[in-house]
Amino acid sequence: VQLAESGGGLVQPGGSLRLSCAASGFTFSSYAMRWYRQTPGKERELVAVITRGGGTTNYADSVKDRFTISRDNVKNTVYLQMNNLKPEDTAVYYCNVLRDSKDYWGQGTRVTVSS
Question: Given pLDDT bands bounded at 50, 70 and 90, which one contains residue 113?
């Protein structure tokens, strides 16, 4: 299993970013996918989840109505569209898959929201 995040960067408050996570090594369309984020000294926080077919999504209250998770089961990629970014969204963002009772993580992509 390999997960590779991309798309992070520096953005001003109110701006937008789109994160991508390219997956390989497993049958992508058979698994729900998740985005987490982590800041120094804090536990990793679940941000968004999407079911294997993409029909159901769930979000942390802190990002609801601002972030959108989606997936492309042909490209084996999951996305996180982040709008109206706030300084408190600054974190390293990770995609995740739970497969055979084991969590797999990418290397993360850093998002910094600052003026």
Answer: very high
